[in-house]
Amino acid sequence: xxxxxxxxxxxxxxxxxxxxxxxxxxxxxxxxxxxxxxxxxxxxxxxxxxxxxxxxxxxxxxxxxxxxxxxxxxxxxxxxxxxxxxxxxxxxxxxxxxxxxxxxxxxxxxxxxxxxxxxxxxxxxxxxxxxxxxxxxxxxxxxxxxxxxxxxxxxxxxxxxxxxxxxxxxxxxxxxxxxxxxxxxxxxxxxxxxxxxxxxxxxxxxxxxxxxxxxxxxxxxxxxxxxxxxxxxxxxxxxxxxxxxxxxxxxxxxxxxxxxxxxxxxxxxxxxxxxxxxxxxxxxxxxxxxxxxxxxxxxxxxxxxxxxxxxxxxxxxxxxxxxxxxxxxxxxxxxxxxxxxxxxxxxxxxxxxxxxxxxxxxxxxxxxxxxxxxxxxxxxxxxxxxxxxxxxxxxxx
Length: 397
Known about the structure:
This protein is α/β, with parallel strands linked by helices. The chain folds into 2 domains: 2-57 and 305-396, Aspartate Aminotransferase, domain 1, CATH 3.90.1150.10; 65-301, Aspartate Aminotransferase, domain 2 (3-Layer(aba) Sandwich). 38% of the residues lie in helices and 18% in strands. It is built from 12 helices and 17 strands. The protein has helices at residues 2-18, 51-54, 63-73, 86-99, 110-129, 148-153, 178-184, 208-221, 291-301, 306-323, 349-358, 380-396; strands at 30-34, 37-40, 45-48, 103-107, 135-139, 170-173, 189-194, 197-198, 204-205, 224-228, 252-255, 266-270, 329-335, 338-343, 361-362, 364-366, 369-372. The strands form 4 sheets. It has a 7-stranded mixed β-sheet, sandwiched between helices. β8 and β9 form a beta hairpin. α3 packs antiparallel against α9, α4 runs parallel beside α9 and α10 packs parallel to α12.
């Protein structure tokens, strides 16, 4: 035990010495895991309510996922997009079949997916209307990535620092404010881009009437409707993609995070209006659609079915039932297994998260809230064990 503690201490020192200090890490060195249970080098167990910030859809080392990745890695680990590969084609077909979208472009991350969507929206408008119709409306409190363009699309002033000049022609609408949106739409508007649940912005779900209004006004004015499903997608909210709950039809959908169960993989889905906007030479990537990542995505997507989505909703009910009577909890937000917990005044989410880590639970934070993103297939036993820790920490706070 002492030897392993020293080993972890040395690893942390090496990290501080050699890795750019852009993360405020918890004082934990994770070694291994299975499902929603992880271990450090001393053997201490942690219930994982973060799933790698929503990426490990089926938790750690899911057997079917491991088998799919291992088989593909031992067959062909990579080729460029100058050639066809079966896993990529099969994932594209599966996505189109499950969403009724028409075409897919593959990237590596949510930020890349949103970059692609921004490019496609502006090109669609340029091709049809010429220059000058390039404004994209996003929402205040949104988060769309950390590249210059996706930071520019992000509707939070805290991110609009240091890296000037940012990309122009973005406007920010207060979330769920239809009247404000009406005032922002103009002849220069080419797209409206939203998250149905603002994850990094505090796990805030949009008003369904607002989402439906965007769908309607975009159709009326030939404005593209983009839904950022980077965090909400792939079963996270209890639907394959969160927009499906509202009966709307986006023109472009972006997804990443949980799509490949822990490997870097993103997809941008295009409908019949946008499927031919980007053509030869106008966009590309070296690693997007990588066969190993695509094989992982096939393993994940093939198992996001009604049974799993029902389980996600049942887990949500357990969380709400168990936390609803805890006096330290002011409110619960989000959808499905994308959970935001607003704490009573005087309690700080960062302090609660740190105390949870000490007691064997890995949560996240978002703004002033505790954020939970457990694996979609977390067992009821693991879920309740993690909630036991969280509730005890809250009561002792």
